[in-house]
Write a structure and sequence with these properties.
The chain is an alpha/beta fold. The protein is built from eleven helices and ten strands. The strands form two sheets. The chain has a six-stranded mixed beta sheet with strand order 6-7-8-3-9-10, sandwiched between helices. A four-stranded antiparallel beta sheet has the order 2-1-4-5, with helices on one face. α3 crosses α4. Bound molecules: adenosine-5'-triphosphate. The site of adenosine-5'-triphosphate (ATP) has 12 residues, from α1. Keywords: ATP-binding, Cell membrane, Membrane, Nucleotide-binding, Translocase, Transport.
């Protein structure tokens, strides 16, 4: 069943800038989906409409059977969690614990569930040692995890991550992969906007490509990255490992993730 059902959605900002042009899209419950595309393609506008931060000009955004047109952002907060691209647009408390606890309190979660979920979110995001710190004294990479924890502590069915790998080193990216896997295993629907093609290739089976305010492709991630026409249209490059595979004259669409490629070469050497 689709947890997100978007039909003929168009949007323009109040200054007249058209940001989305006739988008139709369904996302199933518990799916993990990546959205890729050049700057200005319309990715952030699309997820803000799913979150209910803005209302469609034309078309409908139906989330968990609720049409966002008929509900306030506060009412939608229980269902959709959105982690902003820039953590400083999201954080507003003077200590990490208060920041992570704010959301669950706001949606009136039971006290017992609040402490359980806050503990769980802090552990998942490796924040146990920072709970008393002022988030603004912490580096960007950790502030990002504070914002992720403050969203997942509400346990929304749908979790949107906007550019989660920006500012992360290898360990941070591995932690993000682990978080996405755990949330997905627990049945959350994950939507991630990313410019990091390696991260998309490694973590998402389905990828949506946006260009010029439209969806230009929506397919299995390996089909997307092996499709040179789609990548050219959206002005995107495939992950580095795929370039290497192609340069070796190999044409095997099942190869995309680093481990798959290593296994392939190991087999060949044998
Ligand atoms: N608040 C705003 N007011 C006016 N125009 C906006 C606003 N926010 C975005 N836009 C415009 O809407 C279009 C889509 O922008 P959007 O931020 O959704 O793209 P994006 O694909 O998320 O880009 P990025 O990867 O840079 O975040 C762009 O032309 C952008 O300049």
């Amino acid at each position: 069943m689709s947890i997100i059902d978007i039909r003929n959605l168009s949007y323009a900002y109040s200054n007249g800038t058209k940001a989305l042009d006739n988008i139709t899209l369904q996302i199933s419950n518990s799916e993990s989906v990546a959205i890729i595309g050049q700057n200005g393609a319309g990715k952030t506008t699309l997820v803000k409409l799913i979150k209910g931060l803005m209302k469609p000009l034309n078309g409908d955004v139906i989330v968990d059977l609720f049409n966002t047109k008929n509900y306030t952002t506060a009412q939608m907060a229980k269902f959709v969690g959105y982690v902003f691209q820039n953590p400083d647009d999201q954080i507003f408390h003077n200590d990490v614990y208060s920041e992570i606890t704010f959301g669950p309190r706001k949606i009136k979660m039971k006290e017992k569930d609040i402490s359980e979920n806050v503990k769980w979110a802090a552990e998942l995001c490796n924040l146990e040692n920072y709970l008393k710190e002022n988030p603004f004294d912490l580096p960007l990479s950790i502030r990002k995890f504070v914002t992720i924890a403050s969203v997942i502590s509400m346990r929304p069915k749908i979790i949107i991550l906007d550019e989660p790998t920006a500012g992360q080193d290898k360990i941070g990216i591995e932690t993000l992969s682990k978080i996405i896997k755990i949330l997905s295993d627990k049945g959350h629907t994950i939507i991630t906007i990313s410019h990091d093609m390696e991260f998309v290739a490694e973590n998402f089976k389905r990828t949506i490509v946006m260009a010029n305010k439209k969806i230009v492709a929506d397919n299995k991630t390996n089909e997307i990255f092996w499709n040179e026409g789609v990548l050219a249209e959206a002005m995107l490059k495939p992950p580095h490992v795929l370039k290497l595979v192609k340069e070796c004259g190999i044409h095997n669409k099942n190869l995309l993730r680093f481990e798959e490629i290593i296994d392939y070469f190991c087999e060949k050497i044998k």
